[in-house]
Amino acid sequence: MIIRPYRSDDWEAVRIIYDLAKPDELRGLVPIDSVLPLAAHPEMLTLFKESEIVVAEVDGVAAGFAGNKGDSISWLFVHPSHRRKGIASSLVQALIDKLKNNITLNVAKNNFGARQLYERMGFVIEKEFEGKFNGHSCDVLTLRFEYTQK
Fold this sequence. Notes:
Layout (H helix, E strand, L loop, with lengths): L1 E4 L5 H16 L15 H9 L1 E7 L2 E9 L2 E7 L8 H13 L3 E6 L3 H9 L3 E10 L2 E10 L5
Parallel strand pairs: 4-5
Antiparallel strand pairs: 1-2, 2-3, 3-4, 5-7, 6-7
């Protein structure tokens, strides 16, 4: 696996990864029909364009991607067929190494898989709030990573 910067020719693979993974992230939180494909979701497209994206490539194929907007992790998605192989943790570690700063992110409170990953990597709960996704309320946690010079 290699972690590399996003290239414009990654768009189709990244779009597919998001479209397959986002419904899993929000399953049980919002009606599934409120989860739009990335290409049809203006707010998410804007966030994507404003973020610095990295791609995890396995055997020449994009298997996942992550991104940051400033010191906040804005994206982390892994293709369902590549989950549980260390890709997500490698992507998060790449962002930690790149940012070399305190980092925050928001995660759905009941997204236990993501929470376990982040907590295992040193993120702690900073606050809890009621968020909105396409007009639907959901419980959200802000997690924080305190960067220490190594």
